[in-house]
Structures are given as C-alpha cells and as structure tokens.
Design a protein that fits this description.
It is built from 19 helices and 22 strands. With 567 residues, the chain is of the alpha/beta class. A 10-stranded mixed β-sheet has the order 13-22-21-14-15-20-16-19-18-17, with helices on both faces. A 5-stranded mixed β-sheet has the order 3-2-1-4-5, with helices on both faces. The longest helix has 29 residues. The radius of gyration is 23 Å and the shape is globular. The N and C termini lie far apart (48 Å). Bound molecules: fe (ii) ion (FE2). The site of fe (ii) ion has 7 residues, from helix 6.
Length: 567
C-alpha cells in the first residue's frame, strides 16, 4: 500500500511510505531553492513518486498534514467574537487549500492534483485523507521510533487549534491524553521573542537559542510570570503581553515593550539586554517543557519519549527534557518541523487508520535524491573542472581537512530534515581555533554568536562529550568535557556545550570512515559539520547546486561521489 504524504505549511514537503517503509521524503525548498517554501510541494512530490517507481494513479491515499474541518472550528475562538467576521472564517478554510494556486478559485487541492497529473476521469478517484496536524507530528515520531511503547510529546506554534499534544503509543497505534489549545502556545511565545529580538519568526528560532548561551537569564523570573506552569502539567501564557493570536504584524503587545524595553530592528546592534532576554526566554521554554514532560512521564508511566513539532528542533531544550523529566531514552523525529508532517500524515494513514504493522525504525533521514558517479562525472566534465577519482574518497577528504582545507562533502541521498548530517555537508578541522572565523568569512557569513557543530564517531562520543546518549540527528546539546575543550575549539559554544551528531558505522559507513580517518591522522575522531550552502541559501540538493556553491564560495575542495575537486 503506497501512501503519499504532503504538507504545504512552512517547509513544504512530500513523503512516500509503502507498507510502513519510508521510500522517499524530501523538503520542497531544496528543489525550488526557495527557503522555507510554503507552496504546494510539486517538486518533492514528483521526486517521491519517481523514486518509488510509481505515479499518482498507483497511490492508495494522499495524506494531508492538516485537517481544514478542525481548523474551521478554531476560527471562531481564535479571532474576534464580532459577528461580521464569521463569513470570513468560512471563507478562510477553503482559502487555505486554494492559497497556493493563484487565480484558480474554482479549484480545490484535489482538482489541482488530479489535473496536474492528468488523473481527471481516472478509473479510481484519488483518496484524500486530512490528518490533524499534531497527529501527523506524533505519528512522525512514534511510528518510526525504536520503541514498542512510549510517551509522545509534540510542541509547535500551532496546528488547526492545537499547539501541543501529549499522548502514548503502543504497537501500531497511539492515543491522545491531552491537547493544549492555541493561543496557549510555547512555539508562538518563542517566535514572538524571536521577532522582538529582530529576527524572523518561525525561521530564526535557532539563532535565539544560539544567542541564549551568551546571556544571563536575568529576565527569567519576569517571563516566568508571563508563561506560567499549572499544577495539572499544563501552562498558561498571559496573552495581554502578546499579539500572535491576533494576526497583527508584531507578535508582541505594547505591554511586552513596557516590560522589556524597545524591540530591536534587524540592523541594530545586539546589546546585553537582548542576549539576556534570549537566555531568559530559552530558560522559560526549557523549564515549561520539563514541567509538561514530567507530567507526561507520570501520567503514562512510560520510560521512553517520542518528540516532534518545531519546538523539538531546540536541541538545548531537548537535552534538558531528557536529563530532568525522568525519561530513560528518547526518539526525536529528525524532520521535527512541519516538513515532517508530510511523513507523519502518511504514517498515520498506514498504521493508525489502516492498522498496518510498523516496519521501520528511522535511523537515518537520508531519504532524498542521490546521484551516480557517472552523472557526477558528466557534470564535472561539462564544467571543465579538474578532478581526481579516488577509490577511497573518505581518506582523500580526510587528507584535505587535515591539511587545513574547508571542503564540501556531497555523498548519497540528501537529508530530509533541516540538519546536514553527512550527505550535504561542509566539513572542516575542529582543532583549528580560527575555523569559525574562516568559515564565517569565506562561506557561511554566519552571525558571530552562532556556533558550529561536531560530528563524532559514536564509539568515541563519551570520551569528548557528556550528556544524554546518542544523537544521530544533531538534535541534542552535549557538554564538551572540560579537559577536551582545548583540543576542539572550533566546535565548543561559549557555554562549553556542543550540538553533537553521533555517527554510527552501521548507518553511515562512508561518513564514519571519513571521521575515523581524521581520528587516525590527528588523534581527534571529530569533524566540524555544517550544512552545504552559501549565505541565505537553502542546502544544496543536486550536483549542479553543489558545483555552484563550490565555485561561488571560498570552499577549498569538494568531495562529491568518488571525485575530489580542488581549486
Ligand atoms: Fe507543526
């Protein structure tokens, strides 16, 4: 049974699941080169169908990441109570499905899909299933986790009306214990602070997390009165400080400005109070999540936790949840943001609705396109680039990194989630003190306050890092052991932490070999790993994207397939 999952909220994506096995999943921005695209995911959908060797006529069901029926209910409470707006609520629902096809007001999403793929008049109508947003997030984590049973926590800005879900999975199904309804929302709170600090909401939250380590949480007490935990395990946001629920351009209210001072414009310098507010918001987010997770641990008795939703991309919060909420182990969906709801919606249909048995543990998110050596060689030749073919590209790349080069590393299938995990990565030597300055200056032009992350051999991780276990998807923060900080200055954040990826030889043999080679040469089995893209760009997808990025930035070398290209 083939189910195609689609989402077209921010980070539009498609995923194809066959009998419980994920065949393909990709985020649309990588194909269209339009960052955080919320358009209909036509390109990633076509990729998934092609990769699976099928077409829409062969799909049993198309699973959508959103249930417009539930959304309709919530409009009545979300906006004002003025009667004159009620027609607009009704209008808004089909609009949500139509918004992506300008000028085609007579069409629904189903019409669009059918027409685009010449299915109109087909023998079998397309079966569309609208999966509620947080059910899709929950399914994306639990159904591909290694756990037979587990507690489930999903947290984001908002779904149709839910901003957090607490549940419990057993076997091939999960049940919902509680849902927290928008406008109560931790994701929306954090997005509002992100915007207040001069960054882009629902986009730059990771920057605020990076900034937080530079500040003192001296506003945490004040913010703690605005986001209050409740004895029943929930939380309550004092909405008089915010406007995120009122569809205004600014997500915070005048009262927030009175309490914390003027907001920052994007081009204004970052002052100490900005750093301190970031630290405070981060602390309040973490403390509230721990409170909710502890309650979930008690209510379910489960020792394991599945996490998803955009807030689960906050690796510092994830680590504190794992260390302080009483869980022994966790699975975090690598595409925890809304791209993952395409996959989750498909899994929901297969398991929760159809009762098919779970078959796959997601150990990797390399579910996107890959290119053969022949395809790569053809492009290299076309571009008249000088290249060498290596039987052992891992050793050749390790040699360049040890020699001080910053290299592009393009191998195998593209990652589904937002992190480059050794398939579309830029790699460098973490022992270099100046590596951040060099990378910032020559390739990434990243802000001074954002650290670079390490990938470490799984078996060597405990020697260098202290914290909550394996981290295959770079979604946890670890402490760098004090005695090792001198050895790897390129990846230590200002507070002594690092956003670690642990690399397992059984899952990523080639990337593991590269890091092992580095370890053999330098004594440090760690590589600095950042996403393969230039400033403001989305991560490279194709060979062409990689070559363009390589030639237009200050990368020294590129290891692409078996080929090493040098400038
Ligand atoms: Fe979401």
């Amino acid at each position: 049974m083939d189910v195609l999952g689609l989402n077209f909220s921010p980070d539009a994506a498609a995923a194809l699941v066959r009998d419980g096995e994920i065949l393909a999943a990709a985020t649309d921005e990588r194909f269209t080169r339009k960052k955080h695209s919320r358009d209909f995911p036509a390109a990633s959908m076509q990729y998934c169908l092609r990769h699976a060797g099928t077409d829409l006529a062969g799909i049993e069901a198309v699973a959508f990441f959103w249930n417009p029926g539930i959304h309709l209910q919530s409009f009545n409470v979300r906006l004002s109570a003025a009667m004159r707006h009620h027609a607009e609520y009704l209008y808004d629902v089909p609009n949500h499905l139509l918004a992506h096809y300008p000028g085609r007001w007579e069409e629904t999403a189903v019409d669009y899909v059918e027409q685009r793929f010449a299915l109109r008049g087909a023998a079998r109508p397309l079966r569309i299933v609208y999966v509620s947003h947080h059910h899709a997030h929950a399914a994306s984590a639990f159904f591909v986790s290694p756990f037979e049973e587990a507690a489930i926590l999903t947290v984001d800005g908002y779904g149709e009306k839910t901003s957090a879900l607490l549940g419990q999975g057993r076997g091939d199904r999960f049940s919902v214990l509680r849902e927290i309804e928008f406008p109560q929302s931790l994701g929306a709170f954090y997005a509002a602070v992100t915007q207040y600090l001069g960054f882009s909401a629902n986009c730059d939250e990771g920057k605020v997390m990076g900034l937080a380590a530079h500040g003192e949480p001296r506003f945490a007490e004040a913010l703690g009165h605005i986001v209050r935990t409740q004895p029943d395990g929930g939380f309550e946001v004092d909405l008089s400080y915010f406007a995120y629920h009122q569809e205004r351009p600014r997500r915070y209210a005048p009262k927030f400005l009175q309490a914390f001072g003027p907001d920052r414009r994007p081009d204004e310098p970052l002052e100490e109070r900005h750093l301190d507010l970031a630290a405070s918001a981060q602390k309040v987010l973490e403390d509230t999540l721990i409170h909710v997770a502890r309650h979930l641990r008690q209510a379910t008795g489960q020792k394991r936790l599945c996490l998803a939703g955009g807030v689960a991309l906050n690796c510092v919060a994830n680590s504190r949840i794992l260390e302080e909420a009483g869980f022994e182990d966790a699975f975090i969906q690598p595409a925890a943001g809304d791209n993952g709801t395409s996959l989750g919606a498909a899994l929901f249909v297969q398991h929760q609705l159809e009762g098919r048995p779970r078959r796959q543990v997601m150990t990797s998110d390399a579910l996107g396109p890959s290119y053969t050596d022949e395809e790569i060689e053809r492009e290299l030749t076309e571009d008249r680039l000088r290249f060498e073919r290596h039987d052992d590209i891992a050793a050749a790349a390790a040699e360049r990194i040890t020699a001080g080069d910053i290299i592009g590393w393009f191998q195998g299938r593209m990652e589904f989630g937002p992190r480059a995990l050794g398939h579309r990565s830029i790699l460098a030597d973490p022992r270099r003190k100046d590596v951040k300055a060099v990378l910032d200056g020559r390739v990434k032009r990243r802000e001074w306050f954002r650290p670079y992350a390490p990938s470490v051999l799984r078996e060597a991780a405990a020697e260098y890092f202290d914290g909550p276990g394996d981290s295959p998807f770079m979604l946890k923060s670890h402490r760098v052991r004090p005695e090792k900080r001198e050895a790897v200055p390129g990846i230590v954040h200002v507070d002594g932490s690092a956003r670690v990826q642990t690399v397992d030889a059984a899952v990523q043999p080639l990337f593991h070999r590269l890091i092992a080679e580095l370890g053999r040469r330098t004594g440090v089995p760690i590589v600095l790993n950042t996403s393969f893209n230039g400033q403001g760009e989305t991560i490279v997808c194709t060979v062409r994207d990689a070559l363009r990025c390589f030639t237009s930035t200050g990368l020294d070398a590129l290891a692409i397939g078996r080929y090493l290209v040098r400038k």
